[in-house]
Specification:
alpha+beta; Ribosomal Protein L22, Chain A; five-stranded mixed β-sheet; three-stranded antiparallel β-sheet; 23% helix; globular
């Protein structure tokens, strides 16, 4: 699994290869709703934004309408004034972003929703590292559940990821072969934590920053 940068600004969508996943970071304003996502998808589809049609999947996951074909899939996440959009062909990516900030109730939340392995990892971590590890686990689990298609309704305790704030690994996923899954943390700078997940073979991840005017 390798990573590479996409051009800064993202004024033109790069060709998306079958063995790649493109991940774009962008400024986000809640009043815009899904418009930044729709504009980006329009460029990949080579159509006008007004022609992009989204529908809700069985468990509320947004996806492209059947008229656009089934090869292109996407996922997005936003936290505060930033968002991530992941785009891929032939797989359903899941992505999550969270702002890095102190989480004084991290262990309390973990004891309610996390697996035993994850709770133990957090309990043994020093207080100054606990928030970072908590967010690494949280974003990885969210990304995996979004790629799975069921989202948080599946249950956060039905999968287990272990590791640190620098590396994460999937250990258990109810009803799934963990060897078929990929999960990777994303390098988003010191202010954010993010993760990308998908079911399938390893792919090249390409990261870019989308211009706020796009």
């Amino acid at each position: 699994m390798t990573s590479a940068d996409l051009p800064q600004g993202g004024n033109v969508a790069e060709p998306l290869r079958e063995d790649e996943i493109h991940v774009w970071k962008l400024d986000y304003r809640r009043a815009e709703g899904r418009q930044p996502l729709i504009r980006l998808l329009a460029r990949y589809l080579a159509i006008e934004p007004s022609a992009v049609t989204l529908r809700e999947g069985d468990h509320g996951r947004p996806c492209l309408a059947t008229a656009h074909g089934e090869a292109l899939d996407f996922n997005w996440s936003h936290s505060g004034d930033h968002a991530l959009i992941a785009v891929a062909r032939g797989i359903a990516p899941g992505v999550d972003i969270e702002r890095l900030r102190p989480r004084p109730k991290a262990l309390e939340i973990a004891r309610r929703f996390f697996s035993k392995d994850e709770i133990a990892a957090l309990a043994s971590a020093s207080p100054e590292r606990r928030s970072g590890i908590f967010l690494a686990i949280w974003t990885a689990k969210e990304a995996l559940l979004k790629a799975h298609g069921r989202g948080l309704s599946f249950g956060l305790d039905r999968l287990s990821v272990v590791g640190t704030d620098a590396m994460i690994q999937l250990r258990h996923f109810d009803g799934e072969d963990v060897d078929r899954w990929q999960v990777q943390q994303l390098a988003l700078g010191h202010a954010f934590v993010g993760a990308l997940a998908w079911r399938g073979e390893a792919r090249r991840i390409r990261l870019g920053v989308l211009a706020s005017t796009d």
